[in-house]
Amino acid sequence: MISLENGRMPFMPIHDLPLFSQSAGEQSQRKHLTVTELTQQIKGALEPQFKEVWLKGEVSNFRPNSTGHLYFSLKDSGSSISVAFFGAGGSKKRLPFDLRDGMEILCRGKVAVYVPRGQYQFVAETLEPLGAGALQLAFEQLKQKLALEGLFEQSRKRPIPSFPKRVVLITSPTGAAVRDMIHIFGRRAPQVKILVIPAVVQGDDAPRHLIRAIEAANRHSLGDVLVVGRGGGSIEDLWCFNDESLARAMSRSSIPVISAVGHEIDFTIADFVADLRAATPSAAAEILSSAWFESTRRVRELLDRLRLSMLRDLQGRRRILEQVTARVVSPRDRLREQMQRCDELFLRLERAMETRLERRHSALAQSMAKLDALSPLRVLERGFSLVMQNAAGKDQHRRLVRSAREFRELGPDQSLLIRFHDGEAMVRSASLE
């Protein structure tokens, strides 16, 4: 494989090229070449010498063609060369990146002579951003290797606990990622205990630090889930997460592992091996705290509903109690009311008795007046008297003599009682003939 230096190509020595005769008499006998023949000879001499060349430089004068072919110049500080790209293997397959002026790239191709113009150019077969091609190739090769071993199989991945009590963060203790995750846990799930294991997350030493942290977390059972990651960066910054040893350490972990590396568009080998890939470190914290956050929100919602239900129930019971209280009189008030009622009834009874006594007294007085008016004593006061037979001087045998016939029927010497209005007198009867 031959490399061009400064875009220059070696030319054949001048004595090896056909020359014209210096003799004026031999001008008609000169051997000459046409432009096409010369160009063809140059083409035949040049192209076999540069069949496969790796060429690097800076892109300039980039001009894409409507056919899909790309034409541009590749330059360095000393020279430049025209480049034509017709696609990998001659196809019009689109580049996996956007080519632009100023980009430093690595090309693989050959040197060719474009006969119609008589100029040489570099015909590229592959184009890669400088520094990214080898990394991408290594990434794809390792990805394929681990996939064939089954490290990416979903069946071997462990479930992530919905309600983790202890979360281990394996990342840089000074990065923004760890602060964001701690903030999210504090806001959404403050009951979760966070343990940060400091680790280098960039550079050649990073895989060793990350592996040691994962093994320590498993050896001492430090948490329910591991979060391995860092914030965003270039492909070189994130390359430590494409390490094969780190991938195998993550697959061996008995504690579920979440990979949270870079931004959403960044993918690493760790993302494929991990039990769960989070687009960002913040997304990992959101995922692990989601069940706690949702359950807390649900409990608060249920508490609010319970509190509202209890309040409504208490208000309803208070209304019922107020209604019942309005209808129910206390025993003291009831007794006082009954006492007052008794007093009223007693007064009414007194008044009724007085009224009735007055009425009876009046009736009695009227009856006594009538009786007095009809009393024999009143008659006696007018000069009349009563004659009664007093048998043996016993009151109970006194009999009123009502007529002269009854008086004549009495025998002589009968004891008689004469009743006057002011007293009585005892007499004896004589012969009435």
* Beta-strand residue fraction: 15-25%
Q: Give the integer mean of the pLDDT values.
A: 83
**What's the CATH H-level homologous superfamily of the largest domain?**
Succinyl-CoA synthetase domains
Give a quick account of the main beta sheet: strands, pairing sense, barrel closure: 5 strands, mixed, barrel
State the CATH topology of the largest domain: Rossmann fold
Dominant shape: rod-shaped
- E-strand count: 14
Number of helices: 10
Q: Can you characterise this structure?
A:
There is one protein chain. This protein is an alpha/beta fold and 433 residues long. The chain has three domains: 14-130, OB fold (Dihydrolipoamide Acetyltransferase, E2P) (Beta Barrel); 136-293, Rossmann fold (3-Layer(aba) Sandwich); 380-428, no CATH class. It has helices spanning 35-46, 132-148, 176-188, 206-219, 244-252, 269-273, 281-327, 331-374, 376-381, 404-409; strands at 53-64, 70-75, 80-85, 104-114, 119-129, 166-171, 193-198, 225-230, 257-261, 276-277, 386-389, 399-400, 415-420, 423-428. The strands form three sheets. Strands 1-2-3-5-4 form a five-stranded mixed barrel. Strands 7-6-8-9-10 form a five-stranded parallel beta sheet, sandwiched between helices. Strand 4 (104-114) and strand 5 (119-129) form a beta hairpin. Helix 3 runs parallel beside helix 7 (281-327) and helix 4 packs parallel to helix 5. The radius of gyration is 69 Å and the shape is rod-shaped. The model is unreliable at 1-21 (pLDDT under 50).
